[in-house]
Automatic annotation (TrEMBL):
GO cellular component, as recorded: cytosol; nucleus
Superkingdom classification of source: Eukaryota
Protein's name according to its UniProt entry: Glutamine amidotransferase domain-containing protein
Database matches in PANTHER family: GLUTAMINE AMIDOTRANSFERASE DOMAIN-CONTAINING PROTEIN (PTHR42695:SF4), GLUTAMINE AMIDOTRANSFERASE YLR126C-RELATED (PTHR42695)
UniProt source species: Penicillium antarcticum
Amino acid sequence: MDKTYNPTQSAPVIRLMVLETDKPHPDTYSERGSFGRILHNHFARAGRAHHPPLGVETDQVFVVSEQGGRIPTVEDFNRFHGLLITGSVYDAHGNNQWILELLELLKTLWIKRPDFHFLGVCFGHQLLARLLGSSIKPAPSQDWELGHCRITLTPVGQHLFRTSDEHVYLHQMHQDQVVSPPTAGSAGPDMLSSDTEVACWGRSEHTPVQGLYIANRLFTTQAHLAFDEDMVKRQIQIRVDSGGIQDLEHADRAAETAHLEHDGVEVAKAILRSFVYDDDE
């Protein structure tokens, strides 16, 4: 269990279970730990910026059973306020046994825990959209959205991020995308009621759905929150080496943007506000 508390003992603590669906580059792991550990530190930083500060607790479970992971049980989530699904080299529209088992677990939690928060990054964003009935497909152009990218905010996104700016900037690393936001009935009557509003908070030229939001329930982002320059370059190289990215010029151009500042902390702060409202106006 990773814990980050603020100095005020009575301050709220958000407890998240991080479902790790991939492993970082070995050099990243030796420097910063697993994706769960990296996200813990990122949200701890966002928690310190909350008003008043929030404490953050996380636990991590590596869920790729074909690589030695395990799918947790429903009871494993009893003491948590929410879960976060990480990015992955796997396809969220795939039917690997661990993906199907994870979807079944998520469906059970969604139905049994109406108080629970579901968070997803990249693969996690796409998997949660699939859970709720959306289609996940490769981009029509067949190209990748890579590196430092501009995301155009919808009015919902501007409200969530408390900004009048029209754009945020985040690091991307994906070819697949959510085709459209889920709608009531798309995954069955037990999942989304007819009065549930599923909002899209941002879009880009490559990807029409950059993130999904349901008040007090769901917050996803196609882009990555916690990548730094070295992580971006290493994760691009992993996909080049595996043959996933074949346009080497595109990969090189994206790697050259890895040093640029991004808004990952602002997204994490908005996610924490979905748990505990703050008074920072």
